Amino acid sequence: MDDLVEQFEAYADWVGDKSPLYERVTRAGADDDLLLDIAGEAREGQPGPETLLAAVHALLLQDSDHPLARFYPTCGGDASGRGSDVPDEDPFPAFREFCASNEDRLRELVATRRTQTNDVGRSAALVPAFERVARTAGTRRLALVEIGASAGLNLCWDQYAYEYGDAGTAGSADAPVRIECELRGDGTPPLPETELSVERRVGVDLNPLDVTDPADARWLRALVHPGLRRRHERLDAAIDVARDDPPDLVAGDAIAELPALLDEAPDNSALVVFSTYVLYQLDDETIGELRGLLAERSVERPIYWLSLDPEENRAPATYRLVRFAGGDAVAESQIAEFDPYGDWIRWLDG
Length: 350
Prior knowledge:
- By secondary structure, the protein is an alpha/beta fold.
- The protein contains 11 helices and 12 strands.
- The chain has helices at about 1-15, 20-30, 35-40, 50-60, 90-100, 105-110, 125-135, 215-220, 230-245, 255-265, 285-295; strands at about 140-145, 160-165, 170, 180, 180-185, 195-205, 250, 270-275, 305-310, 315-325, 330-340, 345.
């Protein structure tokens, strides 16, 4: 229980400038036995406060007929997150009453769901990273395997439009998903001048989400803070894109599933294994096992590995490219720093 209290307090400190609503309810929740007990149902390795908040949001999205809904812009409430009737009203009493009234349903959600945001804004870092791989490999054809794909929304990256300020644009100008990314620093990210052709795309996840399932789509929405209108609009558009052409997703452990997925990659393509915010959830032994597997399989063909840099706790997040060939890592570099939701990128690679 002490660990959960620390989680609630730490989350309240972190989220304060992002969501006043979430800051207030988690700050008070750190001293509430009922909320701590429900959050304690979260699976091992899953953050209790975030999972509880998402579970509450999911139930409100399903049925907003509760006084708590007035604090949630996604459920018809006030965008300030303070309640539409009384500006300074404390949201915690309504939040706690909602949790008490829906305790069983919340326990089930917290115990069975995972925090799987995988925001499509992260595709802003993928575009120049994939272009970097294509130029290195000398081909415009890619075969992509995503680890921790969630609902596979970032596998649809080439169906989105991107704006990188002075660096230019990428994607189709009339794409329904638009991602605006501020360019920081002196580096210029490489953007595709001709189309990159994705010959194969597949994702692997312990619990992949199906965007054609209303409950899974609702969970994706519930994971986004209720006051972030732009992100919700972008997520809704990305869900529509994925529903029109659902990405290929495999349920299972990445280490166990990767060999077969690598075998299925077409020979005429650069083989890319990538993830966004995943490696921080893995222990050093598992990361080492993954690296060893990719090195071993590179005897047959080169493999390009894109991921957060797992070697150190870096802030901001640093994207890294490793090229495996002949059974070993032959090149490794940090290519970019980027915002977790794609708001900005700093290109580091020459």
